[in-house]
Structures are given as C-alpha cells and as structure tokens.
Design brief:
The structure is a homodimer. Chain A is of the alpha+beta class. Chain A is built from seven helices and 20 strands. In chain A, the strands form five sheets. Chain A has a six-stranded mixed sheet with strand order 6-5-18-9-10-12. A five-stranded antiparallel sheet of chain A has the order 4-3-2-1-13.
Chain lengths: 327, 327
C-alpha cells in the first residue's frame, strides 16, 4: 500500500492513497483525516485503506485523480518524534579518518541516534529555505520507518512488529555547526534544520524481498545539480530498524507516527559514491589531502530516488536550496 | 492569566482557565479546544481567555469548579518541540570540576541546548514510570517558556516578543546514559525520558517584577522524599530565554507551542542547594572526594514549587518514580 499527504489548510495535511505506479490518487479522508490519525487507529484504518488501494490500482476508485508530487507534504508534516540514527558505520569511519576525529566509543555495538525537530517536516519538492550559505549546507539521503506506538523497553523483535511504513528522507545538515555541537556533548541542534521526505510512504510489502533484516535493501540514487553523486544501497546498515527502534524506546514510549531514520546511506568500497557532500569531502580529504567538492549554494538542486523493479518506490525528492527571508 | 490542561479523551487534553489562587477553574474550550490550539491562534484567543480569567477571579465565571492538580496534564502534552537549554553555567562548572570533564568550548558565549522528545510530556502529579533503577534516575528542576511561532534567524529582542507563557518543569534524567551519549557527540537521548510540567502555565505579568531580563527570578523549592534539597533562584541564568529562543531558531522556524527550557536551576555560592541530585553529588565529590547522595529508587518522591508573593505560581510538581511495566 502507498500513502501520501496532500497539503491542505490543516498542518497535518490530508490523507490520500496513491497507486502503485504513483500516477493516481484517491482521497482517503473518510478513513482518517490525515496519516497521523490513521496510524493512531491503524487496526481499523489499515484494512479500509488497503481496500481503497486495491480499487485504485484496478482503476475502480471513485473520484480518483492524477497524483501530483508537487502538492505533497511530508507524509507526516508534524510528527510525534523524529529520531535519526547513524546506522551506516562506513560513513562515520570515513568522517573520522578524514578529519582526525576520535572514534566514537561502542559505535559498533550500540546505535548512534539524535533527536531531531519534528514539527516542520518538508515535502519532496519544497524549497529548502536556509539563512546562510556559510553554514555548510548539505543533503543526506536516508531511508526511514514510521512506527505504531512502541512501549518502553521493548525488544528488537517486538519493535520490528510495530513498523508500519517505509519512507525516504533528505536529512538536511549544516556542517559548520556539527563539530562544535558534537564537542559540547549536547549533540546536533542548529546543525539540523527541517528534514524533507519523498512524497509517498509505503508498507514494507511494496518492496518485496528488498525489505530484509529490517533494512531497505534498495539503491538510493542521488543527483546533485543534475550529476550522479551516488547510489549506495540500504542493505549495509550496521543496525537494522528493529534495533534502532528498540534503542529509541529504551527509556521512553514512542507515539504512533514516530519516524526513525537510518542516517546517511553509505557503502564500503567507494564505487557507490555518497549520499551527502560531507562524505565525498571526507573521501577527497583522504585521497588528496584536501576536500574539493563545495557545499550547497542557494539555487543548488538535489534529487533522490529509490527504485524497485525499475519503478520509483517513494516518488522523488527534487529540491532547491533558497535563502530564507530575512527577519 | 493562568491556564491549564485537564486530561481528557484527546491526547491534547482540554483547556481551562485557572484562578490566580489556583483554587478554581473554568472550561475554556469555547475559546480553543486545547492550549496548543489557543497558541496557534493567540491574537484571537488571548483576549477571550483573559476576559474569562477576570470573571473567574471575580467569582463570576459560569460553571466554574474546583481546580484539581491531580487531573492536570502537562500544559501541552504533545508539543511541537521541546528544546532544553543549559543556561546556568554554575551547574555545568560544578559537574566538570567534580568529574574531571573537559570544559565545553564557547559555553560562556553560546548557549547549550539539546532537543528533547515532546510527544509524551507528563502532568504534575503523574507517576514517573522508568525501566531500571540502575539507570541513575534523577530529577531536574527548571523554568521554561512557551512561545508563539518564531521565524528562522530571529533576534533575541524579537524572540522575547514571542514568549507567551511561563512554565515549571521536572526534566527527568537518567545519569547512567549521559556520559556515553555526550562522548558520542550525538547528545542526550536515552538519558532523557519524558519530562513533567507543573499544572499551570502563566503569562509573564503574573509574576510582576520577578519576570526580568527574560528570566524567571523566583526561587524553585525542591524537596526530595520530604526533605529540603534546594531553592535556587532563576535569576542567575547566564543566558535569558530571549537568547535561548534565538539560539533555537537560528536555522529553523519554531512552531507555536514550542517549549524552551532553562536547564537545571543552579546558583553559585552553595547556600541554595541543588535542583538535581547529580549536582549535589558533584558538590559532594569536590568536598569529600566521593558522591554520597544516591539517585532515585522506585517509590522515591520529588516536590517542586515556585512562589511569588507567598503563593505558588505554577502549582506544584509532586511525583513518584515507579517501575515501568515489563514488555
């Protein structure tokens, strides 16, 4: 099943079902006004949404219309929590090697995760308004999951059973803030403005065998200003989403609609490129003694897409960085 | 004006106005169903709530009833963001001295802040369910503000103009996780379970001259298991709430209803005690070479109250730590 949220007068948007080929959509507000409400009542909502999805794919949904990704908000524009892991250790290892950072203790046995702001998540084609190019504007291509409610201190196995939807994310990062925020020990804050989401959230069955070991085993194709930048695969996560969820829930409940991110997708070996500029700069630093690729300027564009059976799964993130209005 | 949120079928609770002496309440759902909705529409809601507040104080509000803090949820049980500063440098300095931690770079010129989970904020008298005493369970007494929408990159002066309400907070902390999470650079996550809030949020005029330089200049009286633990004053914040808000909004908008915390209230000189156990342990470590006061056990109780003109301003936090149900 594929679901999306169209922009509306409500901050939560309005729920639609999207056809498997992403071409058509059908209003689903008779099931739930928005995706968050559907997740809060999933046992009731899921079979009704599934029935509508089957009608839509069969060309039999009344009032169906063309799906326009430009009109899509993030699947959950204001989510209960946005907990972003850093589960591809290859990425962290490259950064540490390039910039002489000390290794993170226990990183191979315990997931890394920070809490992101979750009240203003952006749509796939929304501009990225940011205050200053000097902040080191970067994209980060990620996969994520949206969970049902998760009890405190639950096991990875139980956590896996609470995964409802898969998503694709651009976790925008401002690299000028990161080193200072890491040194303080308080973690990322100014370094992490609003994240953006591909237009469509999908149930795991929509990617068949590519949903494996609680990992999205798809290539995430990244283009920066129209040029190939990388297409790393999600299968190399050192921790599965089951483990990331259990980590997040160790000392707290997670509300239905909480989003858990994988961190920048990153593959060992160097042939798959990178899903963020900082990692390419790290590779350049290691190879040549200095980074070469510049961070994003206003007007720069990023495109992110993951395909299964030669079709985009989540739709496409296509965004441009712009200067935020001065206050 | 004093406002509270009573528990209801809605996760956002229902809005009531509370009398200045905290004894009576009046339903305010004809103005807005909950406090978050009131903040999202403050220009319209504020004068109507103020009128109701004046009627209530005059004993003329129709349908008024006794206010019961036991029935209060957090003022905003699921808030857009919970951004917690650490603005009392005395606290950080004590911790660093006691435990030989390196000083935090720029801490005197740039606020420290982490992002907390904001989807499950607890009421003043709610039990604190936690999984394990071995996690080093601690309270932290704080003040906070609730803001209207704040634009990205706004000045401290403009930030000050967006403060709508003051709150009093128990920022529960699990000390066993803190050092590792600080070392990773990703910041606090498992160390920060749900925070709790005193039952009543108040407009700044409710504390007269004690709202000064964007600081809540009140003693915060802390009792641990019925014994005095501290009564540090909020005036010694090294950064005002105006600066904390501007820091939080440097690279992001803040949605109306975002909560900004002061961090543990802490005063220099040692006579005012502490607002958290970790700080008392630091003082013991410095004085005697070892900490003596134990962290909280299941069944332990904490009480927090701030008075102005000899009356509690926000009501009282009175909580007990309990074992979370096993999953």
């Amino acid at each position: 099943m594929k679901l999306a949220t169209l922009k509306s007068d409500s901050k939560d948007g309005r729920l639609v079902v999207v056809s498997r080929d992403l071409k058509r959509a059908a209003d689903a507000t008779q099931v739930a006004p928005n995706l968050l409400a559907a997740l809060e009542n999933w046992a009731t909502a899921e079979p009704r949404l599934q029935a509508l999805y089957e009608q839509l794919n069969a060309g039999k949904a009344q009032g169906a219309f063309d799906f326009d990704a430009q009109q899509a908000a993030a699947p959950i524009p204001r989510a209960p929590q946005w907990c972003d892991g850093s589960a591809f250790l290859n990425h962290g290892n490259l950064m540490q090697t390039a910039f002489n950072m000390p290794p993170i203790p226990d990183a191979e046995t315990m997931p890394l995760m920070y809490q992101g702001g979750s009240d203003d998540l952006l749509g796939a084609c929304d501009d990225l308004p940011l205050p200053d190019e000097a902040h080191g504007i970067d994209f980060e291509g990620e996969f994520g999951v949206i969970v049902d409610s998760v009890p405190m201190a639950c096991s990875p196995a139980k956590a896996a059973s609470r995964i409802r939807l898969l998503v694709q994310i651009n976790d925008v990062s401002l690299r000028a803030f990161g080193p200072r925020e890491m040194k303080t020990g308080f973690g990322f804050f100014q370094a992490k403005p609003s994240s953006s989401f591909a237009p469509v959230a999908v149930t795991p069955d929509e990617i068949g065998e590519a949903w494996k070991n609680a990992r999205v085993c798809l290539d995430l194709a990244i283009e920066f200003n129209g040029q190939w930048f990388g297409d790393p695969n999600g299968r190399e996560m050192n921790f599965g989403f089951d483990q990331l969820i259990a980590h997040a829930a160790t000392t707290r409940k997670l509300s239905a609609g909480t989003i858990i991110g994988s961190g920048t997708v990153s593959n060992a070996g160097g042939k798959k490129g990178s899903a963020c500029i900082a990692e390419r700069r790290a590779i350049e630093q290691i190879a040549n003694g200095a980074p070469k690729t510049a961070f994003m300027k206003f007007g720069d564009r990023v495109r992110m897409e993951a395909r299964w059976q030669d079709q985009p799964v989540f739709g496409t993130i296509e965004q441009r960085v712009v200067q935020a209005p001065k206050e």
